[in-house]
Automatic annotation (TrEMBL):
One of its GO terms (biological process) is pseudouridine synthesis. PANTHER family: MITOCHONDRIAL RNA PSEUDOURIDINE SYNTHASE, PSEUDOURIDYLATE SYNTHASE RPUSD4, MITOCHONDRIAL. This is RNA pseudouridylate synthase. GO terms for molecular function: catalytic activity, acting on RNA; pseudouridine synthase activity; RNA binding. Keywords: Isomerase. It comes from the Bacteria. It comes from Eshraghiella crossota DSM 2876. Residues 12-168 form the Pseudouridine synthase RsuA/RluA-like domain. Coiled coil: none annotated. The keyword Nucleotide-binding does not apply. It catalyses: a uridine in RNA = a pseudouridine in RNA. Gene3D superfamilies: Pseudouridine synthase. Transmembrane segments: none annotated.
Length: 222
């Protein structure tokens, strides 16, 4: 296991750079998950085996995940998270050429049985409002197709939100086997999505903590 998974730690929080393919939490595959990794780290440091996960990433997505090391920090982070006080920014490589800056506002409906979400009408029972902001950083060509590297800020945290919304608006993510028909039958790719930035109020102090990480994959290079 990579030793640089933990990229920030203090007395109250841990921030990890989750590898692509690692589950955020235990699933039915019996693979090591990020929560178990953090708990093992804490016990090795002779600390209490407590790790409350604050934000989660899909298994095929890499990037920053925040943990609280005690109940006070967990309560503080959960409170600001509910008010959208945790700033979450991503890199996404999408097919096509969206405008330089913009916003998507949609209503998403989660299908838990099939592990997908779809854009629906706001009056649909169970639908939830999903909002994100985006900015284009540049363009590149892969196998004759134009792709755009986007900086995305989530204003809500819905299931598969970035993947679903960009696909719905005509700009599916590179490597997304669920929402990009170009990759529907591929098993050797993962969505070109990386959570590179977290910023939030210190749950037990007055300062603001910002953590960033850079993706290793060359797919994000322009």
């Amino acid at each position: 296991m990579k030793k640089d998974i933990i990229v920030y730690e203090d007395d109250n929080i841990i921030v990890c750079n989750k590898p692509v393919g690692m589950p955020s939490q235990s699933d039915r595959t019996f693979e090591q998950d990020l929560v178990s990794y953090v708990l093992t780290h804490r016990t090795e440091q002779n600390e209490p085996a407590y790790a409350a996960i604050i934000n989660r990433l899909d298994k095929p997505v890499g990037g920053l995940v925040l943990f609280a090391k005690n109940k006070k920090a967990a309560a503080g982070l959960s409170a600001v998270s509910g008010e959208h006080g945790i700033e979450k920014n991503y890199y996404a490589l999408v097919k096509g050429s969206p405008c330089d800056k913009g916003e998507f506002t949609d209503y998403l409906l989660k299908d838990g049985k099939n592990n997908i979400s779809t854009v629906t009408d706001k009056d649909t029972k169970g639908s939830k409002k999903a909002v994100l902001l985006y900015e284009k950083l540049g363009e590149k060509t892969i196998d004759g197709e134009k792709y755009s590297l986007m900086r995305v800020r989530l204003l809500t945290g819905r299931h598969h939100q970035i993947r679903v919304q960009f696909s719905h608006h005509g700009y599916p993510l590179y490597g997304d086997i669920k929402y990009n028909s170009d990759f529907r039958n591929r098993r050797d790719v993962s969505p070109a999505l990386f959570a590179y930035h977290l910023s939030f109020k210190n749950p037990v102090g007055a300062d603001r903590i910002t953590v960033e990480a850079e993706p290793e994959s060359e797919i994000f290079r322009l």
